[in-house]
Amino acid sequence: MGKKQETEKTGLAKGVNKGTKTTPIIAKKQRPSRTKGKSSARTTFVRSIVKEVAGLAPYERRVIELLRNGKDKRARKYSKRKLGTFGRAKAKVDELQRVIAESRRAGGH
């Protein structure tokens, strides 16, 4: 449905602009609680540097090994056991598959 044109109501019961006169709804400022959990640019940058310096965790290395051997399901199950939820496990496996792809691209040149 299309959005109607914003015209001022007349306050009358009949006519084109019928209806009670009201004050327009102003967009409210977002509450601080709504931004909880959103990572800042600085935090993301720091985490990337730490990952670059520290490298992969032992369980991440094992997951990569499982992925290279074609055992995707086993890799997801293993990371699920380590991370707690299946959603986190799937995200981690996808991330590590990107790492493998990047290393292949870097090794290919």
Automatic annotation (TrEMBL):
GO molecular function: structural constituent of ribosome
Biased composition (Basic and acidic residues): 1-11
Pfam families, per database record: Ribosomal_L36e
Residue runs in coiled coils: none
Basic residues composition-biased segments: 28-39
Cellular component annotations (GO), alphabetically ordered: ribonucleoprotein complex; ribosome
Keywords: Ribonucleoprotein, Ribosomal protein
Ribosomal protein is among the record's keywords: yes
Ribosomal protein keyword on record: yes
InterPro entries per record: Ribosomal_eL36, Ribosomal_eL36_sf
GO biological process: translation
Family annotation (PROSITE patterns): RIBOSOMAL_L36E
Superkingdom in the source lineage: Eukaryota
Residue numbers spanned by region Disordered: 1-42
Protein family membership: Belongs to the eukaryotic ribosomal protein eL36 family.
PANTHER family xref list: 60S RIBOSOMAL PROTEIN L36
Name of the protein this chain belongs to: 60S ribosomal protein L36
Record organism: Podospora australis
